[in-house]
Amino acid sequence: MTIARTLEDACTALAEHPDALLLAGGTDLMVGINRGQVGFDHVVVIDRVDELRGWRREGDELVLGAGLTYSEMGRGELPVLLPALAQAARTVGSPQIRNAGTLGGNLATSSPAGDTLPVLAALDATVVLRSSHGTRQLALDRFVTGVKQNALEPEELIEAVRVPVLDGPQEFLKVGTRNAMVISVASLALVVDRAGRSVRVGLGSVAPVPVRAIEAEAFVDGAIDWDTGSVPDAAVDRFSGLVAEAARPIDDQRGTAAYRSHAIGVLARRALRRAFSESAP
Ligand SMILES: Cc1cc2nc3c(=O)[nH]c(=O)nc-3n(C[C@H](O)[C@H](O)[C@H](O)COP(=O)(O)OP(=O)(O)OC[C@H]3O[C@@H](n4cnc5c(N)ncnc54)[C@H](O)[C@@H]3O)c2cc1C
């Protein structure tokens, strides 16, 4: 086992043991290990690497460290700058899970139900990957490639995620089989870019990978009265229908495809109404 103290330590250990498991908060990994589903020869522990922790602002962008925990997403200035991420973080697990679980772990797990993923999709996030060979950056839709599959190469780790700071309301909504400690059956993030006069929508748990509702976005951008901040009721209905059409859900033990399509339309309607009643002058 290597307990990395710096990013260089972690990259060196990964170069020496390309098949090593990275351990951040352990809230996904330990479940797999305890069930005997994950085997390993070497573990690289990264939760003490300062360069992976916290977040910083660089101009109009935020750089979120891979080690940013859910508790930290909901603290200080970050909920003001990234309200949808803070809202998503509040729905994750229990306080213990939120104190340990990280953004990088959620991304690397690449579950369709990962709660940060629709937010990152809506924000057009860029994932920063690091190895002893250098750094590369991938758009989120190139990083997450399938159910629990992603573009991480051997020896690579997620260093950070870059997202824009937008001027406008943001919402994250999730439907599960109960109100707390629940994996999402459908989730939706909606972010408004007032300066760009655009709405962006990311969907979770309704396809193998996070989905953007592109047609719904284009439609609603043209239907909003940006000067008054209002949206006609008929446009809200059409938006909700187009978002549901963007979903590619399946039946599984948590819900049927038909329920998911219905639920995502309801979430779309609710998020748009909340965003525009709050932003109205
Ligand atoms: C009781 C419980 C409730 C949960 N509730 C939710 C929920 O509501 N919503 C939700 O989305 N998730 C939930 N989860 C899942 C989990 O908490 C999250 O996916 C979490 O973000 C994982 O982060 P971690 O730091 O614990 O990752 P770890 O378990 O340490 O690692 C997970 C995977 O990511 C890899 N990894 C970690 N960090 C990096 C990195 N920087 N670079 C490359 N690979 C890396 C690891 O090697 C491993 O494969 C829950 C889990 C439990 C046990």
Q: Please, could you describe this protein's structure?
A:
It is a single chain. The chain has a five-stranded antiparallel β-sheet with strand order 4-5-10-6-7. A four-stranded antiparallel β-sheet has the order 11-12-13-14. The chain contains twelve helices and 14 strands. The longest helix is centred in the last third of the chain and has 23 residues. It starts with a strand and ends with a helix. The chain folds into two domains: 155 residues, Uridine Diphospho-n-acetylenolpyruvylglucosamine Reductase, domain 3; 110 residues, Enolase-like, domain 1 (2-Layer Sandwich). The model has no long low-confidence stretch (mean pLDDT 96). With 281 residues, it is an alpha+beta fold. The protein is globular, with a radius of gyration of 19 Å. Helix 10 packs antiparallel against helix 11.
